[in-house]
Amino acid sequence: MPPERPNPRWDQSPSSVISECEQTARTSDYEHITTPVLIIGAGAAGVRTAIELAEHGIEPLVIGKRDHGDAHTTWAAGGINAALGSHDPDDDWRIHAADTLQEGHFINDPVAVEVVTEAMPERLRELAEWGMPFDRTNGGRIDQRYFGAQSFRRTAFVGDRTGKALLDTLIERAKSLHIPYRENVLVTELISDGNRVYGAIAIDVETGQFLLFETAHVVLAAGGCSALYGRHSSRDDENTADGPALAYRAGADLLDLEFVQFHPTGMVGDRYGETWDGRLVTEAVRGEGGRLYNSHGERFMKRYSPVQLELDARDVVARAIATEIDEGRGTDNGGVYLDISHQDTAFIRERLPRMFERFQSLGVDISEQPIEVAPTAHYSMGGVDIDWTTGRTAIDGLFAVGETAAGLHGANRLGGNSLAETVVVGQIVGSHIAAHGVGESTMPDGVLADAERTMSALVSFVESDGNVHPSALIADLRRVMDEHAGIFRDERTLQQGLEMVNDIADRTTTLRFTGGLTSEAFELAIDLSYMLTVAEGVLRGALKRKESRGAHFRTDFPETRKVWQKNILSAHANTGSTLWCREPGRPSSAIESAIDEGYELEYHHLE
After folding, report:
1. For the chain, how big is the Rg over CA atoms in Å?
2. How do 567-573 and 553-554 pair as beta strands?
3. What's the pLDDT band for 573 if we cut at 50, 70, 90?
4. What is the pLDDT of residues 317-370, one digit of tens each?
5. Closest Cα to residue 516, out of 458, 457, 462?
6. Distance in angstroms (rounded) separating the CA atoms of residues 147 and 216
7. Nearest one of 270, 273, 281, 278 to 332, comparing CA atoms
């Protein structure tokens, strides 16, 4: 379990928004569903957890906000890391671990790093056995490409649609095991007494029916919080902080929230249209030799990173691009140029088919023309604090996997490690639950009564008579986060941002709804409650960390400070958020040896 922590009293209100509505004596009708394990989230991490449970004879229930197979995993395009040595036989999992720790600026959980990197070769071969159609070398081995800040070619791939291929493979495996799945389910709250979790309250978004899930184990696989920002790589209705907020309000701790990764290359809306603004241009474009140029035609990464160039760490490249734009060397549309046209057309179409087709549909032939890109909020290194040998949180029965969990990535995520994380920790959690037995899922009468009151409060909330649509407050929140918690931060702008977030929270008393529990407005209001909870945590963590480290850059504290080589945790007390710190621990001697050996990417292989 995670280390001992402060012991506040837990606020059991349904959410920061819903707590404002008047409680009523009504008890809403609901469907009562019992399952041994409830998995909230149907992306790669959730499905891999379910597969492991099913293979041990336990039938979990997987629930998702959208149609089956429509998960954020599909947008992870470039690849998945494992030290296979397909091209570089000197690579091994220790060096993968060393790269991960260095990219995370040594505040990663060293147990998490070792667990994931050591397990990944086996997990990758397992995926191949299940039918994942990896690109192959001429000799038949799983092919691997360069990704930023990696010492060797370690990123396995399926063209530039690796995430979709991964999820399709896992879903087919899950179907073969007859794992039950329920789609279009919006979870509004976990049922918890602050010590253990008993289930979840949800809405069937198609019928408006309340659902009460009773279970011995809840696994949160509901993604991260990059959609807190206006310019982000997710679709607007995903990565809205559901997982971390649900865990936090149930009594679990959050870790490293100040670290939000801005991917260097997102599409520029002024060039490609509002629908595409911020959407990811995979790192595989740079991994296959793509080069960055400013409006003066200068390959500017030579100034910022003369050795690793475009394949330096994501935070380095993102800050470089942002600086070029801020100092007037960007394009008229507010970006820089990413150019891979020096590669053969056949090579581009084979290695980057999704990118080629996307831009072709927008009138751009990337084999002949550069594309315009700018940084975009992409991934949250922060999330729920877990024990990486089991996936457990500090709340009995509550687990977190995938981007909902924190600890592996530290201050900045190594590209290709997100998909790796999903299949490793999913297997660990499923195996742990199976080994220890699912136990009974008996919900105490008092806890059940509280859950029923929460459902009644939700009905009153929807019937409230306000004049502000939730989408307006979400737009305001995203503007605040863009302007006050972006790539460059300082005390004044962060403090202003925190005050503005609190003002938006106050304005939730004026929300307006039409269409009841099945309405888009209701779903957006729930999203808003999650987003406000975690946005405050991001800003508070960024204010507390008075240094620059990885994805967190303070212009008023531009240096990395040894005294801040520690993690910031957030606990939910009845008086508000409580922040505290702990040391991340030391890597094993095997990993420290790999760090000392000083491996580094040799970019000239791409030239």
Report:
1. 23
2. unpaired
3. confident
4. 999 999 999 999 999 999 999 999 999 999 999 999 989 999 999 999 999 999
5. 462
6. 40
7. 270
CA 478 to chain centre: 17
Phi, psi angle pair for 136, to nearest 5°: -120, 150
Residue 488: phi and psi, rounded to 5, are: -110, 130
pLDDT digits (tens, 9 = 90+) for 126-168: 999 999 999 999 999 999 988 878 899 999 999 888 989 999 9
Using the CB atoms, write b or e for 225-249: b if 16+ within 10 Å: bbbbbbbbbbeeebbbbbbbbbbbb
Cα dihedral 500→501→503→505 (10° resolution): 170
Distance CA 65, CA 249 (A): 19
Per-residue pLDDT band at 605 (split at 50, 70, 90): low
The full DSSP string for 309-328 is GGGS-HHHHHHHHHHHHHTT
Q: Indicate the pairing of strand 383-385 with strand 405-406.
A: parallel
Domains observed in the chain: 263-375 (3.90.700.10), 453-564 (1.20.58.100)
Residues with a known catalytic role: 263, 286
Please, are residues 38 and 218 in contact by the beta-carbon 8 Å criterion?
A: yes
d(CA 449, CA 445): 6
Place of tokens 């409006």: 295
Other residues' Cβ atoms within 10 Å of the Cβ of residue 35: 23
Distance CA 303, CA 299 (A): 8
3-class SS of residue 545: coil
Closest CA to 276 of 344, 355, 330: 355
Bridge pairing between strands 185-192 and 197-204? antiparallel
Asked if residues 230 and 269 have their Cβ atoms less than 8 Å apart, the reply is: no
- The residue with tokens 């039918």 is 131
Among the listed residues 572, 29, 575, the one whose alpha carbon sits nearest the alpha carbon of residue 254: 572
Give the pairing of strands 291-293 and 181-182.
unpaired
User: HEC states along 245-280?
Assistant: HHHHHHCCCEECCCCEEEEEEEECHHHHCHHHCCCE
Alpha-carbon separation of residue 366 from 285, 286, 551 (angstroms): 10, 13, 29
Q: Pseudo-torsion of CA 354, 100, 595, 552, nearest 10°?
A: 110
Residue at token pair 């009562």 = 32
Helix (H, G, I), strand (E, B) or coil at 182: strand
Residue 594 CB partners (closer than 8 Å, separation 6+): 94, 95, 97, 98
Concatenated DSSP letters for 365-383? -TTTS-EEEEEEEEEES-E
Q: Collapse the DSSP code of 544 into the 3-class scheme (helix H, G, I; strand E, B; otherwise coil) and give the result.
A: helix
What is the predicted pLDDT for the residue at 25?
35
CA distance 554 to 308: 24
Query: How many CB atoms are closer than 10 A to CB 518?
Result: 16
